[in-house]
Amino acid sequence: MLKKVSITLGEQELVELEAILLDKDEQEALRYLRDVINKKVKAAQKEGC
């Protein structure tokens, strides 16, 4: 079962996210979701177990 999680983005991660949004780079956005956000979500879910 999935549950709510909170994640924190560091300064560099926020800069990278802003750049992706400004550039409207779809491939980079998908990579960011997969490599940064998904990793943090999985880690947050493990902490709650």
Regions with little confidence, pLDDT below 50 for 5+ residues: none
Q: What is the number of strand segments?
A: 0
Radius of gyration: 12 Å
- Percent strand equals under 5%
**Helix content bin:** over 70%
Secondary-structure element pattern, one letter each = HH
Q: Averaged pLDDT, please?
A: 90
Distinct helical segment count: 2
Structural class: mainly alpha
What does the main sheet amount to?
none
Shape: elongated
- The number of domains is 1
Distance between the amino and carboxyl termini: 11 Å
Summarize the structure.
With 49 residues, the protein is mainly alpha-helical. Helices cover 71% and strands 0% of the residues.
Description:
The chain is mostly helical. It has one domain (11-47). 71% of the residues lie in helices and 0% in strands. It contains two helices and no strands.
